[in-house]
Structure formats: structure tokens, C-alpha cells
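COURSE: Structural Biology Practicum
ASSIGNMENT: Worksheet 4, Part C
STUDENT ID: 0417
INSTRUCTIONS: Below are two proteins. For each, the amino acid sequence is given first, followed by its C-alpha cell string. Answer the questions at the end about the second protein only.

PROTEIN I
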Amino acid sequence: MQIEINIPAPCEKALEILERHGYEAYLVGGCVRDSILGREPGDWDICTNALPEEMIAAFADYRLVLNGLKHGTVTVIIMHTAIEITTYRIDGEYEDNRHPKEVTFTSDLALDLSRRDFTINALAYNQGKGVVDCFGGLEDLANGVIKAVGDPYKRFHEDGLRILRAVRFACVLGFTYDERTKDAVRDCNYLLRNIATERIQVELNKILLSPNVRQGLEDMYQLGLYSYFLPEMCHTYGFAQHNPFNCYDVFGHIVRSVELIEPDLTLRLTMFLHDIGKPFVWEECFDGNDCFPLHEIPSAEIAEKFLEQMHYDKKTSKEVVKLILAHNDHILDDDYSIRMELNKMGAESLGRLLQVKIADMGAKNEEMKSMTPFFAQLRARMDTIIARGDCYQISQLAVNGNDLRALGYEGAKIGEMLAYLLAEILKAPTLNERDTLLEMLRLG
């Protein structure tokens, strides 16, 4: 079967220039895989038998970025697009489960493809030759299989992150594993100890945001990966929740709640970590049910430590911890209660919290699932309050610190009186008029 790939103009130009100078040139890796699957490629990479100095000469009329020369990569700027072009290469021995000790250039495309991680990524393409498939990648794409190129144990010892990448590709693409590759993932999982947490974070994020996120989260447990970057998650698997609210163990609830919430990283991290502290606070209640009092506190503590270790940005970490701490809060369906929550959380965070509660309830038993419309109703009430312009923060009061100074208030008393006014306005927002507030202050 002839496969045609629609190549972006900058890449097409790069291929044409290399071929015009007498060199082989192919699209390679993920862009070929995704194009065949009908997915939009994120990056377009090119490989060639031209040596780096030959590439520099061929693209003498273009702006070049040369910080990848050590690995044979020249970045060419064509039509305002950066195109990475790399000489065919053979990797030497790996000494740190990530980097080869040395790189040797080769003129053989098959040797270059043989060093890649999975068969579905070891595909090359140009318009003259079509798809070059030396390792059965097309068949594995058609059958939906993640299979290592050659010996999976060797591939994973070269770069331990490939263990997590196997799970990521499986859940992002909805694929299964070749059995030998799966065995090697399980047997080599300890190699994740040697991987920088920033690299693990990148793969975890892609798993969390994938359309088959539950598959990815369950695979990471079954393959023993959590032990090496989030050991607390191991305690949740099989940890029963015998009570009137739940029908899954803690892990089963977590993965279903992640699946139910929209693919936003902050929200999915929140659901991933929101109940992780439950096994550490379990108690048997007076009625014989399982109880997890204040489980949001250890969950937030574990989350904060994990997010810091994985080098998540402070804004994301702070919001995730805030949502975990609030996910068990009881919110009443009346305007005053919603204004109080808006004051406590802020509009953006409260909107997220209501999404968290909907996913949390949706991952419990049928009685709890029936409560999800209630939180949708709270969201509608919140939107109405905001649209109406109700005051719920000091900055929204019709007076400010300067007005209080004009009345003779000083120092900490200004803050106290603004807080007093806000407390009154939260109860009766129609009082938020400048003259009314000034009169309240005079009566003070």
C-alpha cells in the first residue's frame, strides 16, 4: 500500500535542498507515525546521510542553530520555522540510562533507525521512497501494538525513561503491548530511579492528559512504576472503602475521577492526588464502616511534596494543593454561601472546585453520582452572582483605604473596617454603595 504524507512546506524545502545537493533525506520518527495514524504531528524531524559540516554548507543561505552539533543535529530556520536535521548515527554504550558515551555517524539509514525506542517510531519517509520500515512498525501501527526495536531490555537500559514512554504511547494511542516489551518494562522498572524528575513529569503529564488516561494510570500500577516516583500511590490499590458512598477501592476511585474530569493539567493532577492520603488515616467508624477523617490534609501534604519533587511550577502546585484541601468542603446552595466561597477561593478556583466535586461524586456509587447535578446547579448560581456584579472581595467594595483615611482611620484599623464592611456586604450585596458604606463607617 502506497502511503502519502502531506509534508509542511518548510520541511519539504529542507528535503529538496538536501536531495539537490546529492544527499539522502527522510522525515523520521513521531511525525511519520502520527501522519500515518491521521494525527497532527507535534514536531517534524529530518534525518540524512549528510554530515553536519555538509549540512551547514548546503544551507549556507539560511539561518542556522548549531547547539546540537555534538549529536549531529543542525537546526535550519526555513520560512520562520525551525527544522531539526540530524545525521544518521549509531549510539555507543550508555553510561547513565540516558546519554550514549559517544555517537558515531553512519551512512546507513537502517542502522540509524535501529537505535530508536519503538517500532512505531522507527519509520522514515520521503516522497520518492515512501515509507521505510525496517522493523515492522507499519504492522504494529495497524495492530495497535507498542513493541521495542530489537531487544527491549537493551532499549530500556539505554534510556530508562523509555519505560514510561511505553505506557504513554499505549494510553495516548489506545494501544496494547508486545508481551516481551511488557515483560521488560516490568523487569526494568527500577531504572526510573536514575531518571531526572523533570523528564518523568513530562511523560506523566502526557499520560494524565491522554484520552485513555485510566489505562495509563492502571498500567503504571500493574507494571510497578509508581514505586519509583510516587510510592504512596501503591498503598491505594486494593484499599477498600466499605461505606455508603463508595463502590471502588481508593485507587479505583482515583483513576475513575481523573477520567471523568476535563483534560486540564491542574484538574487532572488534583484528581490524581486528591485521595492519596486516605490509607494513612483509615479508621473503623462506630457503625463498622470505613472512615477517612480529614484525609484531605495528608493528601495535600503528599501532593505538595510530590509536585515539588517533580519540579512543577509554583502556580500549578499551589492551586492543586488548594483544591485538594477544599475538595471535601460542604457548600450550601444559597447566594450567601456561594459569595463566602468566592471570597475564600476566588472565582477561578471555585469554578475548578465544583468541577472537582462533580468528578469526585461521579466516581463513587450510584447514590453519590446522583448528586452531580447539585454541583452543576451551584456552578450556575456562581455564574449568576458574578454576572450580577455581587461584591465578594475587598477590592470590589465601593470604598477603599483612602476613603477610610479621610474619615480618620489609621493603620491596622483600616483593614479591620474594610473586613467589617465586606462581611456585611457578603450578606446584603445591594448595600455596596459608596454613600451607604460611608454612613456605616460614620456610625461605626
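PROTEIN II
(use this one for the questions)
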Amino acid sequence: MLCLSCIRICPMGVYENKEGLISPVNVNNCINCHACEVACPVDAITLKN
């Protein structure tokens, strides 16, 4: 089951739920705020600086 925390918390709309998978579809919008990384309860997201 997906928690969708990254989708809800991202201020730039980087992530979308596509067919049950969370995908970073708007990566150029990312401002490296790391909100998605902090919000993920299973540490599935790691941003590169």
C-alpha cells in the first residue's frame, strides 16, 4: 500500500501516482527542499545534491 506522503508534501508537484506506482514525473520542478525525503516513512527517496 502506498502512503502518498511524497505526493502530498511536495510543493512543486514532482511526483504522481501512475497505475499504483509513485513516479517523479516533473523532476525539473524539484527545488531540492528534501520534504519528500523527510516525509517518506520507508526511506524510499534519496535526493542527490
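ANSWER KEY EXCERPT:
Q1: Residues 14 and 28 are 8 Å apart (CA to CA).
Q2: The mean pLDDT is 94.
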